[in-house]
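$ run holo --ligand "zinc ion" --emit tokens
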Amino acid sequence: MTFESNRHPLAAIAVALAALCAAGAAQAQSFNAVAPTPAQVRPAVDQAYTQLMAAPQIQKLLEAVKADHERSIEDLKMLTEIEAPPFKEQKRAEAFLARLKALGLADAKIDAEGNAIGIRKGSGNGPKLIISAHLDTVFPAGTDVKVKERDGKLHAPGISDDTRGLAVLLSWLKVLNDNKIRTVGDLVFVGNVGEEELGNLRGIKHIFAEHRDIDGMVGLEPVPDGGVLILGTGSHRYEFNFKGPGGHSFGAFGEVPSAIHGMGRAIAKIADIHTPSDPKTTFTVGTVSGGTSVNTIAPDARMAVDIRSNQMAPLLETEKKVLAAVDQAVAEENKRWNVNTLSVSNKLIGDRPGGMTPADSVIVEAAVRANTAFDRKSVLTGASTDANVPMSLGVPAIIIGGGGKTGGFHALSEWIDLTDAWKGAQSSLVTVLGLVGVEGVSQPLLEKRPPRAR
Ligand SMILES: [Zn+2]
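-- output --
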């Protein structure tokens, strides 16, 4: 996952993350509150978690999560040591699938996009909830992914983001089956591909395209205890290529347009675009290159533009303005020299939808109430994660942690401290159980939605 923007209140964590994150230095990383935590949750939510925490079979289940902690570390190490660069997650997907099957999801499979997916059926007529973690890491093939133990921590690229999430899903599956817990709704176990940058969320996009009847999603990521991600900043990124005939700066002057001048006109127009501050919407020309020599009218120029917003409408509006600015700039450069030999092409190089799950929605209140049951203070935060996809579709979605202290995401120095990490696995499991309901204990909180149209 990629954390967004930089504001209070856990600035110290932001600084620590930024310092650890050498490879991800281009991305500001922080853990900031994007909305106040609801002071109160609706009575139905409160009741469900009161019932769950009071039920002997749930207490026994939570003991089992703790007892499974050591064993789950073996899954964590095994999966971490199977490299999973973007678009090359297959081996790890197969290993995760084998574990899903071994732990009781006989019908689990790898789908057409490469996601490992298996459904643990509920008792019927309940909601369908995805619980997911991503298979891919940011690290290229050949990276040393051997897990090393040092200073009471496990060190390896990808171990916290997001292999810990995968291991927690497997542990949940095991304890639910061992303890014969019957949920009312269906739990869809997912180890998905394509979460990290170049993957553009292709795994979760595919799942939501294929499964129109999903009622919600709870993703696991290295979120600190109590963190509930409710905001998914969307982004569109473009590369623009300006092409002209080029020529001698003196000899061809007056006859040919300049790719660099044309791009300069475009940048000036983009720089003047206005965007709303709420929902926060931004743009930047991030990189430029081009030209042949100081005394050549440039035949080529390139720039990359990043557009982001916390909501889709202003994102698309800003994108439209950027595209129009570029076209207009090319037209002006051609007109300046009375030619039509300058052209521009663009390529969408980043495509992440965005959205927000309202702070007062049932799924958020559920996570907040479960945190309270485990004496945790909730912080509602934002980041760019798999949850961007359901959020953009209006399907309730949150990202929460699986326990453990983590750091160094996207850097070779990535680590996880699993001291008492089972507590995080417990509280997140309770969050999930409240949403789907448990036979004989609590009603599902998550509402069934009409299937989305194709
Ligand atoms: Zn992640």
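-- notes --
Residues 2-232+354-436 form a domain with the Aminopeptidase fold (CATH 3.40.630.10).
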